[in-house]
From TrEMBL:
SUPFAM superfamilies: HAD-like (SSF56784). InterPro entries: HAD-like_sf, HAD-SF_hydro_IA, HAD_sf. Pfam families: Hydrolase. It comes from the Bacteria. This is Phosphoglycolate phosphatase. PANTHER family: ALPHA-D-GLUCOSE 1-PHOSPHATE PHOSPHATASE (PTHR43611), FLAVIN MONONUCLEOTIDE HYDROLASE 1, CHLOROPLATIC (PTHR43611:SF3).
Length: 194
């Protein structure tokens, strides 16, 4: 079986538009907020608890209700999907290929994705926050292949970040930098998947 593995952020989803609203909740300057949001994101994706993450972003200890409010705004902001990518996923599923999601994302976000209608097309949904490791760690590719019961050559992986493509390629996976669903279709057709 061939497995097609997708990253989530800016591949299946559009880039979040929630950052100004998050900054507003904290009464923070939007530029400073965005810098802090991304500065601590890798730790969050690797399993940092929600409240600890938002306190780090805010630069002060936040209470649980504020953390929960920020988490809800943040996770909802990342749920806006790219229709062309969803159509590609549907076509791959109809063609009988295995689908997996491998995302650097906090656990809270993973729980939301699991109930999205489109995610039911995936046999595996893997979130870094649940594993406390993240792409491009070599252990992530080993975990992916173990869960799929697959060899590296059985997988095609799409991600929008070159560092993750490099990590997957080092593991022997056909790793393709995401440009668009149309470009992904071209590659999948060229290798005989579509």
């Amino acid at each position: 079986m061939r497995w097609i593995v997708f990253d989530y952020g800016e591949v299946i989803s559009k880039r979040t538009a929630a950052l100004p609203e998050l900054a507003e909740v904290l009464g923070a300057d939007s530029v400073a907020f965005e810098s802090a949001y991304w500065a601590h994101r890798e730790a969050y994706d690797r399993g940092m608890p929600d409240r600890e993450y938002w306190s780090a972003v805010a630069g002060k200890e936040l209470d649980e209700p504020t953390s929960a409010q920020l988490t809800k705004i943040d996770t909802t902001g990342w749920l806006v999907t790219e229709q062309s990518t969803l159509e590609l996923i549907t076509d791959l599923k109809a063609a009988g290929h295995g689908l997996a999601l491998l995302s650097n994302a906090p656990s809270a976000f993973g729980r939301l994705v699991e109930v999205e209608a489109w995610s039911r097309q995936f046999e595996h949904l893997i979130f870094s926050g649940d594993l406390r490791m993240a792409k491009p760690d070599p252990e992530m590719w080993a975990e992916l292949l173990d869960r799929l019961g697959a060899r590296p050559r059985d997988c095609v992986f799409f991600d929008d970040r070159q560092v993750n493509i490099d990590g997957a390629a080092a593991a022997g996976i056909d790793a393709q930098l995401w440009v668009s669903a149309a470009k992904a279709r071209e590659h999948l057709t060229a290798v005989g998947i579509l």
